[in-house]
Amino acid sequence: MSLAITGKTAIITGAAHGIGLAIARHFIDRGAHVMCADIDEAKLNAEFGDEARNDGPVRIFAGDLCQKLTVNNLLSATVDAYDRIDILINSARAFAPCDPLEPIQDVLEDMLRQNMMGALRLSQMTAKRMISLAEKENRTTGEVGTIINVSTLAAQRAQPELLAYSIACAAQDQATRSLAVALAPYRIRVNGVSFASVMSASLQAALKENGDWREAIVAGTPMGRIAPPSELAETVQYLASSGAGFVTGQVIQVDGGRSVIDPIAVPVY
Questions:
Q1: 18-29 and 41-52 are packed helices; what angle lies between their axes, rounded to 10 degrees?
Q2: Using CA atoms, how far apart are residues 20 and 230, in angstroms rounded to an integer?
Q3: How far is Cα of residue 221 from the mean position of the Cα atoms in its chain?
Q4: Is residue 266 in some structural domain?
Q5: Domains held by the chain: number
Q6: Alpha-carbon dihedral of residues 252, 134, 130, 143, nearest 10 degrees?
Q7: Which residues span the domain enclosing 104?
């Protein structure tokens, strides 16, 4: 089974922080051409600015990917740099708690817009670009592209204080399955990676304010630890590689077994 991604072109959103940053670094280290996208331009420059100044495997793109024009500009910048798009990884996420007994319209709309609608639009527009490039190059066999969505266990667990966030994560997982079926005839695979007990940027920030949560998370995770985001990146690489060539429509749990039991009353970040 080949897990190679050398020479492939990947767009990775949320690449300036946490899990997105870990995935971007992982793909760069394994020889992929990576367009690192994030709304945080300062952090993008701090992480990748020196590398992106060369005509090498790294480029950066700053902008609000919930805007259609910005998405078009991202896709054009990627094709201009590398002539193709093989992989899209939607790892940008926004997190906000809410009071489940109060109207949540604003919070829900924001969570859906940032965690589901933005990724869905980017996936649709990227798929169209992948198909167009394949037709232009007369690629009639082989994989045209792959799309990977990063989600969390919140999509499956009822935590009232995360009502809006959980709905958005669940919607993203369903979008993964629906797009997988829609894009299969075009030879584009769509999968998801759902995580828990992984040191995301939001979990790291939460643990600074709630240090006692660490013990609860570790105790409630069968494998007895919180994983670094690099372990999630390994699964993303598998889904992006030819080794997963017959895998589509799946949301893979990367959580140390937490989804099997999950007795923790700690929010899933």
A1: 10
A2: 10
A3: 22
A4: no
A5: 1
A6: 0
A7: 9-261
DSSP character for 225?
S
CATH number at residue 21: 3.40.50.720
Residue 167: inside a domain: yes
Kindly state whether residue 39 falls inside one of the protein's structural domains.
yes
208-254 residue pLDDT tens: 999 899 999 999 999 999 999 999 999 999 999 999 999 999 999 99
Tokens of 181: 């079926």
Sequence-distant (≥ 6) Cβ neighbours of residue 109 within 8 angstroms: none
What pTM does this model have?
Answer: 0.94
Q: What are the backbone dihedrals phi and psi of residue 33, each rounded to the nearest 5 degrees, phi first?
A: -90, 125
- How do residues 163-176 score in pLDDT, each as one tens digit? 999 999 999 999 99
- Dist. CA 87–CA 190, nearest whole Å: 10
As given in the structure block, the two tokens for residue 116 are 């589901």
Distance of CA 44 to the CA centre of its chain: 16
